[in-house]
Amino acid sequence: MKKFAILAFAAVLVFAFTVPAMAVENIFGGYWRTRAVTQGNFSGATDEAVVTSTVNVPVWNDTTGEYDSTATAVATPTYPNQDQSLVDTRTRIYYTAKFSDNFKFVNKFEFNTTWGDAVGGDIGSDATGTFRIKNSYVDFSLGGMNIKIGQQGLTFARGFLFSDDASGAVVTYAGEGITIPFTWIKAYEGGIGKDMNDYDVDYYAINPSFSMGGATIKPLVMYVTSKDAQNWASTSDLKELDVWFLGADIDVELGAAKVWFTGIYETGSATDPVVTDPDFDISASLFAVGLNVPVGPVSVHGQVFTATGDDNTDDQDVKAFQVPKGQSYYWSEIMGLGIFDEQGSANSPKDQISNVMAANVGVSFNASEKLTLTGDLWYAKLNEKNPLTGEDVLGTEVDLKATYKLMSNLNLDVVAAYLFTGDATYKETAAGGSQENAYEIGTRLSLSF
Predict the structure, then answer these.
(1) Deepest in the core among 145, 187, 315, 383, taking most CB within 10 A?
(2) Contact 218, 249 (CB under 8 A)
């Protein structure tokens, strides 16, 4: 795979430097960043701790056709110490061959290195295994239709549902005040052989956008399906999979203020391949609302989101909002990954929003033409309690960030974050490890061109 990636990159470069005679406009761009961060007590405890507790283990009973919740087992989860300090670098190179306003060939390449590691960050800097092809697709228009085919970045419902690179196709109709894109994502390819197509996992989505005055409305329908999903690591505990996501994004401008809303209802069914004919009925939801109100050099912002968890794992009703793969919504610095996304605090859903309610209020202040100061306060709790601790509060987090424009296209971010740890993150027991608050201090130097 690495050799193929290098050859593909070389081929694109050769193409870029040999096509001027073909009247092709070669467009280059990119992104570079280097981050340095120290993170402490992300496990919620000062030392590594092992918590022993007795939990119910539902067992399927073929005779009664339901789960027997009387069985129990001893669970001994480990909360490893998550302290770390690191420096890493990311480089992205963008190349687009523009044949005309209606025809482009788009590519994005990425190199990642952690300073001092054995795959490019050590002495000699001989990078191996860090090169990635993030995007490679054609973008062309025929009449009123725009078509994108290949590896491309896609986002649905602000990332609450999907925000990632994927292989597939997007066909978009554009009219006056409306666009209607239809998307197909090949999430997993079953392979070659008899009935191997049964193991394919596909996403299909339609996400129109309507503009009316100061409002934009984007209804959404996404369908995830597979005849046998258990070969894909993201759905290894499922067989037949038929899941629907129905929702909408709404953005409204009220003068200088902006308000947004996202709502998603998840429904459908899935089958467990381990037991005899247990069909699971899926019914889950996610709601989010936010606003931004500028007042001179100050901007006040806030948001609240909530996603259902499963209140009873003993039955065949799945109530936890979840997406097989591709969901990514960053929020706070410690609980929600933030700028330094190496890890999140223990028992938080991180960017995979499920079984959580989080609320935020913050202020941004343009102190000067080059300096912006931002402060955020976050509170988060689980909608359904952590079964091992019997607690639901993840904690209260304070995030502070200063962004300084060193020169054109070159920015410096300085971040400090502190989490007042809740008992759902870690609950102190006699097994070891005292509960401690988590902290993060870091800087990021970034360049875009």
Answers:
(1) 187
(2) yes
Q: What are the angstrom distances between the C-alpha of 440 and each of 36, 116, 117, 164, 431?
A: 11, 21, 22, 26, 26
283: Cβ contacts below 8 Å, ≥ 6 apart: 266, 267, 317, 318, 319
Lowest mean pLDDT, pick from 13-27, 104-118, 125-139, 365-379: 13-27
CB half-sphere exposure, 384, CA atoms < 13 A: 14
- Contact status, residue 168 vs residue 202, Cβ threshold 8 Å: no
Please give the Cα distance from 178 to 137 (Å, whole number). 24
Length of the chain: 449
Distance CA 201, CA 170 (A): 17
Counting Cβ atoms within 10 Å, is residue 118 exposed (0-12), middle (13-18) or buried (19+)? exposed
pLDDT score of 215: 95
Mapped onto helix, strand or coil, the DSSP state of residue 197 is helix
Q: What count of Cα atoms within 13 Å lies in the side-chain half-sphere of residue 115?
A: 10
Q: What is the pLDDT of residue 119?
A: 79
Locate 29 and state its tokens. Answer: 């761009």
pTM of the prediction? 0.87
* Cα–Cα dist 173/150, whole Å: 18
Question: 42, 345 in Cβ contact below 8 A?
Answer: yes
- pLDDT of the residue at 432: 59
Taking the C-alpha atoms of residue 274 and residue 260, their distance in angstroms, rounded to an integer, is 42
pLDDT of residue 370: 96
